[in-house]
Inverse folding.
């Protein structure tokens, strides 16, 4: 009825499976950084190739082409200026029967915001 488990060479404990599973998952997570950078590099190469082919095709034919196509664009080439004007006035008046201390208060406020934003091309930002 009682079996001895001292001769259990073919059996593995569940902790070994859990450790193996977490090692595999951690390796996959670590490799995603390299896969993501590889995909981003291919996207940059494809965009650069497309822009260069478009510029070459426009210059080699009699097509009308105005402006420049820039390969890179960085949003920090921008300049934003804002001006804020704020007016405020307050009116207080006592109600009928001035000894009661009850008064009416009226506020008149206006705010005006004007924003000008300019973005330079990367070639002009140097």
């Amino acid at each position: 009825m009682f079996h001895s488990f001292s001769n259990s060479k073919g059996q593995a404990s569940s902790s070994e499976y859990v450790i193996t599973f977490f090692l595999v998952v951690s390796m996959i997570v670590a490799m995603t950084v390299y896969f993501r950078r590889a995909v981003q590099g291919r996207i940059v190469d494809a965009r650069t190739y497309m822009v260069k082919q478009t510029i070459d095709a426009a210059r080699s034919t009699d097509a009308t082409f105005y402006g420049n196509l820039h390969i890179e664009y960085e949003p920090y080439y921008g300049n934003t200026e804002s001006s804020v004007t704020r007016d405020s006035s307050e009116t207080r008046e006592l109600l009928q029967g001035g000894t009661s201390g009850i008064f009416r208060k009226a506020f008149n406020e206006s705010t005006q915001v004007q924003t000008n934003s300019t973005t330079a091309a990367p070639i002009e930002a140097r």
The chain has two domains: 12-71, 77-126.
